[in-house]
Structure formats: structure tokens, C-alpha cells
Structure to design on (146 residues):
């Protein structure tokens, strides 16, 4: 019994060349994508985009970004996740150290501010105001001279 040549198709030489070309070009395409910044992992997070819009004062863009964010993305923004600070913590610590070093050298800026007497109401006066407004069973203090 003779086998017919038409039952089992053989790959044509044109297809083999095309497949070999694709295999050879795939690593080049991946390297080009990685080097050009078009990699999917190098994408700016929605939280960072929202933060940047708020930082430059673009409230319309920030509002649209907030509406497009999922509840999980909003929650991670509230926790401060996926946001890159514009200044490194090392730079912040250096600025703080320089600030306090300048204060120590000059002596011009006091380390603790003392409120001026009679400058107005403060939180320390709150209990006397509560008692003055008729708290139950509390004696009424005499009004202070102003």
C-alpha cells in the first residue's frame, strides 16, 4: 500500500523562515521595551498620579483620577502606599539637622514659644469656660477682668 503525499502536510519553507525570524526578533523587542520605559511594571501608580495632581494644584485632574480609582486603590492611598516621596528621608533629616544647628548657633530663635499673658483664650482656659456656662453642680466662678 502506497502512502499518499497529500495526507500529512509538511511545513513549507516560508513558514519556517517566518517562525525563525519571530524567535530571533522576540528578545530584541523585549530589550527595546525594557530600555524605552514601556515596561508594564514601570508605570506610575494611580495613587502617585493623584498625589502629583494635588501637589501642583490641579483639582480637576485629581478629581477625575479619584473617581477612576478602585476602592482598594483609594484605601492604599489613604495608607500612603504606592507613593514615592519627592525628597528622600536622608535629605529631610539633613535639613532638620541644619535647621537646629542654625538655631543653636544664632540663639535668635527660641526652642519653645511662651504665650504672652492676656493674649486671649487658650485650651487651658476651657475648664473655666465650661464651668461658667452652668455645668451641673459646679460653682459659678466670677468673671475675670479684661
Amino acid at each position: 500500500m502506497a502512502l499518499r503525499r497529500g495526507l500529512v502536510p509538511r511545513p513549507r519553507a516560508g513558514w519556517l523562515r517566518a517562525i525563525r525570524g519571530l524567535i530571533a526578533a522576540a528578545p530584541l523587542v523585549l530589550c527595546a521595551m525594557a530600555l524605552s520605559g514601556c515596561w508594564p511594571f514601570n508605570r506610575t501608580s494611580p495613587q502617585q498620579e493623584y498625589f502629583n495632581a494635588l501637589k501642583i494644584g490641579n483639582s480637576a485632574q485629581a478629581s477625575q483620577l479619584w473617581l477612576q480609582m478602585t476602592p482598594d486603590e483609594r484605601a492604599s492611598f489613604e495608607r500612603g502606599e504606592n507613593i514615592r516621596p519627592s525628597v528622600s528621608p536622608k535629605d529631610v533629616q539633613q535639613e532638620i539637622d541644619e535647621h537646629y544647628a542654625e538655631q543653636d548657633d544664632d540663639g535668635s530663635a527660641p526652642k519653645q514659644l511662651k504665650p504672652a499673658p492676656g493674649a486671649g483664650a487658650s485650651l487651658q482656659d476651657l475648664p473655666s469656660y465650661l464651668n461658667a456656662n452652668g455645668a451641673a453642680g459646679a460653682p459659678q466662678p466670677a468673671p475675670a477682668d479684661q
Remarks:
- The longest helix spans residues 13-36.
- The chain has a mean pLDDT of 75.
- The chain is about 55% helix and 0% strand.
